[in-house]
Amino acid sequence: MNLSSIERKSRHIAHRTALRVRGIAFFFSLVFVFLSCRLFILQVFRYGTYQAKVMDEITVSSTLRANRGDILDANGKVLATSKTVYRIYISPKNIAAKTKKDGVQYAAIIADGLSAILGISRETLLEKAGKTRYLDETVKRNVSDDTAKAVLEFIQENRLDGLIQTEASTTRYYPAGTLAAHTIGFTGSDNQGLFGLEYYYDDDLSGENGKYLSAVDAHGNADSYGYTTYVPPKDGLTVVTTIDSYIQQVLESELAAIIEEFDVRDRATGIVMNVNTGAILAMATAPTFDLNTPYEPDLLSATLLAGIGYAEGSEEYRAKKNELLLNMWKNKAVCELYEPGSTFKIMTAAMSIDAGVTRPDDATFFCGGSYSPVKSVRISCWRKIGHGRGFTFAHGLQQSCNCAMMQVVSRLGSDAFYNYFEAFGMLEKTGVDLPGEADSIFHRRDALGTVELATSSFGQRFKVTPLQEITAVAAVANGGRLVTPHLLDRLIDSEGNTVYQYETQVKRQAVSQAAADAVSSILEEGVSGTGASRNAYAPGYRIAAKTGTSEKLDKADANGNFSLRIGSCVGFAPYDKTEIAAIIMVDEPTTAHFGATVAAPYISSLMSRILPYLGYPAVYTEKEKELLPVTVGDYTGMTVREAKKQLTELGLSTKSDTADPDAVVISQTPSAGTEVHKSLGTVLLSTGAQEPGEVAVPKVTGLPLSEANRLLTDAGLNIRIEGAHEEAKDGKTYPRAVYQSIPEKTPVPRGTTVTVRFLYADGE
C-alpha cells in the first residue's frame, strides 16, 4: 500500500467519523429540542392539569355548598327559599358489632324508638338494621329540625352514639305552597332547578360552591407540616320577580271558580300583564299543585289515573302517572298552543285601520250569517242569523262579526296581513324568561290564500300561545308598541346589592298610536254598550274587552266528534290610560263553551278586584250608583227607631215585627256584614214580638233582573246582583240570571239575601 492510498483511506475514515459525530450531535439536539418543547408544554400549557393531579394526591377536599338564592315577588314576599333539613341514618355494621359486644338487642331498641319518632314501620327499620355489611343506611330524608332534635334526644337517652346519626343539608321550600306553582317551578333532590323560574335562573340562583383543602401524607393522614386552603362559597343571587302575590291570588281564585263551575277537562290559564313594560304581574294554570310535594298528582290527574284501572305499582301505572305529572307541571300559558278565535279580531281591526282600508265609522259591511271569500267556500258567522247590512266596522267588531272581519282583510290583502301578523310578534317566541316556550303555527306567506286569509281574520286555523296573544293585545292597549313580556325585575346579591336591573324592551311599533287608540275605544264601547263582550263589564270601570270561542279540530270528543271548544276573553283597563291587560283561556269547558260565558264574567271580577288595589278608584255613573251594594251593619241592641235611622241613611228600607219605635232589636235579617243593593234591599228587624218565620226560595235562573227581583222581593227575600245590571226592555236583548246562591225551594229566614248572577246570552 503506497502513501497516497493510506492518505485516501485516512481521509475517508476521518470523513465517516465526522459524519457520525454530526449525526449523533444532531440526534441529541433533536432529543434536547423535543424534551425542551415537552417540558415547556408541561410547565406552561399543562401546568394546571398536573398541578391538580399532584394536589389530588397530597390533599383532601371538602365541598362547601353555596346557599341557593331566594325567589321573591314584586313586594319582597318570599316565594321560594331554602331551609335546613336532616337525613337520619343508621350504621347496621356498628349495630351488629355493639350487639355482639354488649349482648343487647340494639336493633330492636332503635326500631321501637325511631318508629315512633319518624313514623316508619318497625319492620322496615329492622330490615334496614339487618344490612350488617353497611356502615350507612338511610332511614329518612328531609326531616325537620324538631324531629331531628327528638332523634338526638333518643340517641343520648339510650347511649346510641355511632349507631344512629343525623346529617344536615338544605332543601327548597315554598312558603305559599301552590301560589304561582307553574311559574316558579321547583328543584330536584340535588337542589337543581327543574321547571319554571327555578330552571331558567338556575345558574344565578345556584351560586358557586367553595372548598376546604387540607394537606395529607402518603397514608392519607393530616400532614402537620402541610397547609390548608379555604375557598369560600359564593351564595346564589336572589331573583326578585314582577309577580304580585295579591294579583296572583285573585287570578288563581277566578280560575279555580271556572274549573268548578264549568267542569273544565283540559285546564284553564290566565295572565295579568303591565302593557307598558311587559312585566307579568300574575300567571297561573288551574288546577294548580303544591310545589313542596310536586310528585303528588293534583285532583284532576289523580281522577284520570284512578279511572284508567291500572294496578298501582305496575309499569303501566307508573308510566301513566309520569305522563300526567309532566302535563300537570306544564305551564299552559307558555307551553301550549291554541286557536285564539275572536280575541284575535282586536289585531285584525288594528291592522285594518292602520293600513287605511277601513275606518271605525265605515258603514259598508254586511252579514247574512255567512260569507264566501271564494265561490266554492262559504264560512259561517258565529251568529247564524247574521248581523244585517250597512253596519259600521266598529259595530262589526263590537258584535264580533266574522263576516265583517273577512270582508276587511280581503281589502287588506295577504301580504299586508302577513306583515302585520309578524309585526304583532305572532311568528316568533315572545322571549319570556321561562323554559319551554312553544312557537306558533301559521301558514307560510306563499300559502296564505284567500280562504286561509279569511279564517285567519277571526283567529281560526292557526295556533299561538296565550302569552303571544296577550302580548299582541298589550301592543294595542299601549299605543302600538310590542314589548317583551318578562318575570324578572332584578337580581340582588346576599348583601342586598342590585347586580342586574331589567329594562323594558320594546321590539317594534306594530301599529300606529291612532289605530291602537281607535280599536281601544271601540272595544270599551262594546263592553259598556251593547257589544258581544258585555259580560266583561265591571261597574265603576271602563274596560276594553273581547271574547272568543274556538274549535279544537285536532282532538275528538268521547263520541268521536269534533265538538270540543276553547272559550277565552282578553281585557285591558283603564281603557284610556291602560296599565294592565288580562287574558283567561278555558280549555274544554263542558257545561258551557262560549267565551262570553266561561271567561268574560271572570275578567270582570278580576278587574273589579285588582284595579282598586293598583290605585284606580271606581268612578260610578248615576245609574250604577243606584244599584251599588252596601254593607248591612249590626243593629241588635238598638231601638227600632235608631236602627231605621241608620238604615235609611244607607239607602235601605226596613220592616219590623212591631209598631213600637222604642222596642229593642234582638235579631236582624240579613245579618251584619251582608251586602245588599240600595234601591232593592230591605232589612227585617226582629224584637221578639212575632216569630220571623221561613220562606222558600223561588227559582230565578233564566229570568231578567226585574222579574228575578220581583219574585225574591214578593217572597220577602233580598237580592244581591252580580254581573250585568241592565233591566229588561222591549226590543233589545238583556241579561238573564244564570246562577242563584241558594237553590230553589230551600227554606230560609225571611229577609235572607240571595246572590244572583246575570249574564248576556248573545255573546260568543
Radius of gyration: 37 Å
- Portion of residues in beta strands equals 15-25%
Task: Report the biggest beta sheet as strand number plus sense, adding barrel if it closes.
Answer: 7 strands, mixed
Number of helices: 25
**Uncertain runs:** none
Task: Give the strand tally.
Answer: 31
The structural class is alpha+beta
Give the overall shape, derived from the CA principal axes: globular
Distance between the termini: 126 Å
Please estimate the helix content: 25-40%
Mean pLDDT across the residues is 89
Description of the molecule:
The chain is an alpha+beta fold. A hairpin with a 5-residue loop joins strand 16 (488-492) and strand 17. It is built from 25 helices and 31 strands. Helices cover 37% and strands 22% of the residues. Helix 14 packs parallel to helix 16 (402-412). The strands form 10 sheets. Strands 2, 3, 4, 5, 8, 16 and 17 form a 7-stranded mixed β-sheet that branches. A 5-stranded antiparallel β-sheet has the order 10-9-21-20-19, sandwiched between helices.
Overview in brief:
With 764 residues, the protein is an alpha+beta fold. It is built from 25 helices and 31 strands.
Chart the SSEs and their pairings.
Blueprint: H1 3-45, H2 47-58, E1 59-64, E2 71-72, E3 78-90, H3 92-102, H4 106-118, H5 122-129, E4 137-143, H6 145-158, E5 164-173, H7 181-184, H8 196-200, H9 202-206, E6 210-215, E7 228-231, E8 238-241, H10 245-262, E9 268-274, E10 280-286, H11 299-308, H12 315-329, H13 332-335, H14 345-355, E11 365-367, E12 370-374, E13 377-380, E14 388-391, H15 393-398, H16 402-412, H17 414-423, H18 450-457, H19 466-477, E15 481-483, E16 488-492, E17 498-501, E18 506-509, H20 513-528, E19 544-551, E20 565-573, E21 580-587, H21 595-598, H22 600-613, H23 622-626, E22 629-631, H24 640-650, E23 653-656, E24 667-669, E25 675-677, E26 682-686, E27 694-696, H25 705-714, E28 718-723, E29 736-740, E30 747-749, E31 753-759
Parallel strand pairs: 2-8, 23-26, 28-31
Antiparallel strand pairs: 1-6, 2-3, 3-4, 3-5, 6-7, 8-16, 9-10, 9-21, 11-14, 12-13, 15-18, 16-17, 19-20, 20-21, 22-25, 24-26, 27-30, 29-31
